[in-house]
Amino acid sequence: MVNLQSIRDMETLYDRGLLYRAVIESCSQKFGHDNQMRYLLLHLLLPREYYLATLINEYLSKNDLKHATEQICSLHSSEIQQIKGIYPSLFGRELEDDIETFTFGEHRKVYMFYVVLSCYITLMYKHT
After folding, report:
1. 53 and 91, same structural domain?
2. Distance (Å, whole) CA 17 – CA 92
3. CA angle at 71 for the pair 73 and 54, rounded to the nearest 5°
4. Which of 8, 68, 100, 125 lies at a 20 to 30 A Cα distance from 109?
5. In which domain, by residue range, is 73 found?
6. One domain for residues 18 and 40
7. 77 and 22 assigned to the same domain
8. DSSP H/E element including 39
9. What is each CA distance from 89 to 16, 47, 101, 105, in whole angstroms?
10. Cβ-proximal residues to 128 (8 Å cutoff; 6+ apart), any chain
């Protein structure tokens, strides 16, 4: 089992996105994708924004729009910006691309509204 100190040591040597992707894949192989122990370990091992990005990706790809909506709509605009920044390093594509691929209709509009609008809200707070 990987201990927390070795993860912190590895963070300094390697790209964080690659490291956290390896942690996610390792937990998935060990516990499966729908195991509560996997979610607990990911929650404990990953920083908050990486954990939330992982949840959002899984909910979108499983077409679990109820949980995806809960996650996306409960985030602050600065958190959405952090997730948008790390999402490509974890999954190799933009968050907006996954929203376009996995959602439809009103859900797509709401998600895109939150994700795109969060950029402008964050900019407004930085300039005031």
Report:
1. yes
2. 10
3. 140
4. 125
5. 48-128
6. yes
7. no
8. helix 36-45
9. 8, 14, 18, 28
10. none
**Residues 91 and 30 grouped into a single domain:** no
Residue 43 pLDDT level (bands cut at 50, 70, 90): confident
Q: 60 and 72, same structural domain?
A: yes
Compute the half-sphere exposure of residue 18: CA atoms within 13 Å on the CB side of its CA: 6
Q: What are phi and psi of 95, to 5 degrees?
A: -60, -40
CA distance 23 to 8: 12
pLDDT digit string, tens, across residues 49-74 = 988 999 999 999 999 999 998 998 88
Q: Name the residue type at position 30.
A: K
Kindly report the number of other CB atoms within 10 A of residue 34's CB atom.
10
């729009």: which residue's tokens? 65
Tell me the one-letter amino acid at 95: L
Q: How many domains does the chain have?
A: 2
Q: What's the CATH number where 65 sits?
A: 1.10.220.10
Please give the structure tokens belonging to residue 119. Answer: 């950029």
The CA-CA-CA angle for residues 35, 93, 85, to 5°, reads 90
Instruction: Name the token pair of 41.
Output: 């370990």
